[in-house]
């Protein structure tokens, strides 16, 4: 079955471009469009998309409020990928805090947008470590690294490498562990942090001070 995608952007030309990219893939299909975040919950209930490509800046209800409302009120909500013009936009960080699974730049190549959708659906990170670090540095409220004592030492190691943008395979190589073992640790980290996905776990690591923007 095709992956169902909902497009949310106040610019018609942006929506048209995204539709052309998504619908060109045999396993992806656009099921609907919205010009404002206020339309999102109703369309999600009606159309049941798997992924929402959400503009972060819209004049009425922006992507931050729309993402937070969607993920807190809709049963089995779709994955949300925010779409932005600037990678260092503080709005993006707020959207990630609200529950978005990652972000894409509007100037991204078609293959990058398609890969981003598939990455998020697979449960992997759609992170740009340098950009996240920069946004966290401007917004950091923590004064010292929190120990996150409820995580085991190995889980803390895994979380640090997740924040660095490493995949499960790369983490396995770095820590000399089996891939399935890493997947188990990642699952435990998400569960203990109450995170929906890897992106949320990384944001939690920065917000707590466990991972610092300077390394």
From TrEMBL:
A Pfam short name: GerE
Sequence ranges assigned to domain HTH luxR-type in this UniProt record: 144-209
SMART domains, sorted: HTH_LUXR, REC
Keyword entries, A-Z: DNA-binding, Phosphoprotein, Transcription, Transcription regulation
Molecular-function GO terms, alphabetical: DNA binding
Gene Ontology terms: biological process: phosphorelay signal transduction system; regulation of DNA-templated transcription
Post-translational modification 4-aspartylphosphate, affected residues: 55
InterPro entries noted in UniProt: CheY-like_superfamily (IPR011006), NreC/VraR/RcsB-like_REC (IPR058245), Sig_transdc_resp-reg_C-effctor (IPR016032), Sig_transdc_resp-reg_receiver (IPR001789), Tscrpt_reg_LuxR_C (IPR000792), WalR-like (IPR039420)
Gene3D superfamilies: 3.40.50.2300
The Response regulatory domain, residue ranges: 4-121
PANTHER family xrefs: TRANSCRIPTIONAL REGULATORY PROTEIN NARL-RELATED, TWO-COMPONENT RESPONSE REGULATOR
Protein name: LuxR family two component transcriptional regulator
Source organism of this protein record: Amycolatopsis echigonensis
